[in-house]
Amino acid sequence: MSDAMPSALEVAITLDGRDTTLEATPATSLLRALRDAGATATTGACEQGECGSCSVEIDGRVECSCLVPALVCHGSVIRTVRSFVRADLADALAEHGAVQCGFCTPGIVVAAEAALADPEPLTEHGVRESLAGNLCRCTGYEGIIAAVLRVDEARRDASGRERTG
């Protein structure tokens, strides 16, 4: 029986709007493959799916990239925090004291923007649900939740979409 590592395979994806090829073995997580390819905006901390800092959107679903084998992503559209950074959310997070050490920020931004894309108006409970799985050690979440709700309200005002609650 050989202890040799299997050779890397190519994984073709669309990453933040660009066709990209990753290299991965069967044991390589999407997080590791992204970072090895230079996509370092997606951070990794626990690498066990517990903290949410590595959250990305894969074919429209928010996932912890540390838990996803890179090989299963062949042909997928993957959006990292780079695709989601918008000035209004960044400003609101800063104004509400919701960005401190930066550990959770990439995952929070991905989860928040996914929630903000929902056509239904957000509620505090809904924002909490959307952010579940993203650990923040500094802010206590209240500032994050307030920032997301404020952005939802402002975007609805700007687009003329109805608000409720």
Textual characterization of the structure:
This protein has 165 residues and is of the alpha+beta class. It folds into two domains: 9-82, Ubiquitin-like (UB roll) (Roll), CATH 3.10.20; 85-157, [2Fe-2S]-binding domain (DNA polymerase, domain 1). It has helices at 30-36, 81-84, 87-95, 105-116, 124-131, 142-159, and strands at 9-15, 18-24, 55-58, 61-64, 77-79. The protein has a five-stranded mixed β-sheet with strand order 2-1-5-3-4, sandwiched between helices. α3 (87-95) runs antiparallel to α6. The longest helix has 18 residues, at 142-159. The mean pLDDT is 92.
CATH topology of the largest domain: the name is Ubiquitin-like (UB roll)
User: Strand order across the biggest sheet?
Assistant: 2-1-5-3-4
Instruction: List low-pLDDT spans.
Output: none
Percent strand equals 15-25%
CATH class of the largest domain: Alpha Beta
Globally, the shape reads elongated
Mean pLDDT: 92
The share of residues in helices is 25-40%
Concise synopsis of the structure shown:
By secondary structure, the chain is of the alpha+beta class.
Name its key features.
single chain; 165 residues; alpha+beta; Ubiquitin-like (UB roll); DNA polymerase, domain 1; 2 domains; five-stranded mixed β-sheet; 6 helices; 15% strand; elongated
Helices and strands in order:
Blueprint: E1 9-15, E2 18-24, H1 30-36, E3 55-58, E4 61-64, E5 77-79, H2 81-84, H3 87-95, H4 105-116, H5 124-131, H6 142-159
Helix pairs in contact: 3-6, 4-5
